[in-house]
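Annex B. Sample input.
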Amino acid sequence: MTFAVTTTKNAIEHLRTKHRIGPDGPIAIGSTPAQQTIVSMFGNAPPRIIFNEEVFKHLLLQWIVANDISFRMCEDSFFRRLCVYLAACQPDYSSVYRALPRDGGAIKHYILTWYLAMKEEVKAKLHGTLAKIHFSFDMWSGPNQHAYQAIVAHWVDGGGRLHAVLLSLHGF
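Annex B, continued. Sample output.
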């Protein structure tokens, strides 16, 4: 439904007040932005929509095609775990809506926060091991003619399990 504010002001107001319909579709009384998004996207009333396999496939394909995502993404165990986690959550979709990043800066922040936490975990593991720590170095050049160097630490823990951790990856 298309709205033009200047030419249909009275009709827009009538739809909003009498029929609870806005520019994006139905308006739920006292609804959150997440609920409004669900209602406008799928036409279902909050708080829960019934899973529709065809709608899911359509949304998945839109995401894959519009963002040039590899078709093999659906085979990725991390992607599959994310989907299963979302499916297993309580029907509080507003929590998922609030957690969705709004821009690439949020993803950058998530990655930096995760990196700093993992860095401290690696430091603690390296500091706590009684075994010798071995280092390997690898250098190569990519198709863009840039050189790269990786430094990896290797050690065996008390249970006999081998660990390998990337400590550094520099581009030259």
